[in-house]
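**Fold in tokens:**
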Amino acid sequence: MWSFPVTTAPPPRLKEEMCEDVYKIGGISSVSVGRVETDVLKPGMVVNFTPVNVMTEVKSVEMHHKALSEALLGDNVGFNAKNVSVNGIHCVNIAGDSKKDPPMEATGFTTQVIILNLPGQISAAYAHIACKFAELKEEIDHSSGKKLEDGPKFLKSSDAAIVDMVPGKPMYVKSFSDYPHLGHFTVCDIRQTVAFGAIKAVDKKAAGASKVTKSAQKAEKDK
């Protein structure tokens, strides 16, 4: 078993939900289904979906066909994303409070990664996955985190390292210290898990203009 020296901290209050599916229900419009990952989700909140960058109002929240005044951390719920079509948001999008550190797409992130069962080597530009290993910054001891070498040319099975990674498609992640559930990952290739890691820092994409629905505009004016 590998030890993984990463500092943890209490999750921030970001009011985020990861969408597991999106449905079209007659008379209700789009319903996003997912798990509340931080804090609470309430009707009337204005949320931003990333990475699609859509802002809308939460019209209602339900669990097992029962309306809720609020959904708490860990609840699996459905909520009505008003004025958004089923094609406007997608599975694994993140919905977060538009006013309090809204979720933003990542352009890159620094990770602490351990290589598992890999035939061969991983070098910079390794990209047979959703993210590219852009730079191998330093090799470290997987138990203590102590630096062993700057800029290793490659990594092999059992090696641990600090690596800069670049997503190959729109992606949202958090640092492990801020929020563990969105701050760790596995690397799968050749039909097996070849590495796993924790995210230490995230480079966020510059905020662009969100597509704001009419319900979100009205909700903002009413506050």
